[in-house]
Design a protein that fits this description.
The protein is of the alpha/beta class and 313 residues long. Helix content is 35%, strand content 17%. Helix 4 links the parallel strand 7 (134-139) and strand 8 (166-169). Helix 5 runs parallel beside helix 6 (208-218) and helix 6 packs across helix 8 (243-257).
């Protein structure tokens, strides 16, 4: 039976199997628990290396493993995490599942990466979906030999929907028109727009054309938006630390998707390009906490639990 957390000021207590309690710092969110729905884990020292990041990346090219991320969670009150697989190697889906198998209470979900639109997709999905932590896949790009949204791609996306799994979409290779296309074609498929649509945030009011496209995508109730990767999207290093820099974009997304379809994610360790994890979390919390505790709880954990089918224990 699922055990839900209880809170007292300044501390979150998690009920253990023996009935005792362990104190966890609440971090930046004033006691509201956090599910981080977007981190990457990889090991650059593995045989054969990694497809991402590249060795030339002086910030990210290093082993990024649970022992490193666990320090971040302890410092910032992150109660649970969904990992997003950045490798296009099929076996790396299993690698990351195995990597965090020691701590299923914290690492509650994996968004995998499979070659959509290929003959092997259904077999791969059937294999990995047997693990309840495998909550869906991310559409990063079309695999070699697959040109656009053809019949095979639609077949595989429909299969994903039929299994009750989700689709995260990396917006660097796709756009909001693509989101509308998928949402309209497969209305039962839960779709997550990554990183505030992939827009470059420049500290000025949102452009009308972009705002219109956001609203068009948000008309579909199966589409959600991740408030994530804001330091990366600022396109500046170090990233600006003032809430006002990001507020115009936050406001468009909030008004379009409402309080029930916005979800927090960090994009760690890419956050390191712009500043500390806690800095980014504090910016997001400061903006959305002004809208009330109910909105803040939905952003930081309730909507994630519903979308990905995970829980905090």
């Amino acid at each position: 039976m699922r055990q839900f957390i209880s809170m007292i000021p300044g501390l979150i207590f998690v009920l253990g199997l023996a009935g005792c309690c362990t104190a966890i710092p609440t971090g930046m969110t004033g006691g509201i628990p956090v599910i981080d729905t977007h981190i990457h884990l990889y090991d650059t020292t593995r045989a054969g290396g990694v497809p991402w990041p590249k060795p030339t990346d002086q910030v990210l090219y290093r082993p990024v493993l649970p022992k490193h991320y666990d320090k971040v969670t302890r410092a910032n009150g992150v109660r649970a995490t969904v990992i997003v697989e950045a490798s296009d190697r099929v076996e790396d889906n299993q690698w990351v599942l195995d990597l965090v198998a020691h701590n299923p209470k914290h690492y509650v979900g994996v968004v995998g990466n499979l070659p959509v639109g290929t003959p092997a997709f259904a077999k791969h999905l059937e294999r990995f979906a047997k693990d309840k932590r495998y909550v869906g896949i991310r559409l990063r790009s079309f695999p070699e030999g697959v040109s656009g949204f053809n019949d095979a791609v639609w077949r595989d996306l429909q299969l994903l929907s039929d299994k009750g799994l989700v689709l995260d979409v990396l917006m660097s290779n796709f756009n909001l028109d693509d989101i509308v296309l998928i949402a309209k074609r497969i209305p039962e498929l839960k779709i997550m727009i990554n990183h505030l649509t992939g827009l470059i945030i420049n500290g000025v009011p949102a452009e009308a054309v972009w705002t219109k496209k956001v609203r068009a995508a948000a008309q579909y109730p199966n589409v959600y938006c991740k408030v994530s990767g804001i330091f990366q999207r600022s396109n500046r290093s170090p990233a600006p630390k003032k809430v006002s820099y990001y507020a115009p974009i936050f406001e468009v997304v909030y008004k379009a998707f409402g309080e029930d379809r916005i979800i927090y994610g960090s994009n760690w360790p890419v956050t390191d390009r712009g500043g500390e994890y806690g800095d980014q979390l504090a910016i997001i919390h400061e903006y959305f906490s002004a809208k009330g505790k109910n909105v803040t709880e939905k952003l930081f954990w309730k909507n994630a639990a519903k979308f990905y089918g995970v829980t905090i224990r």
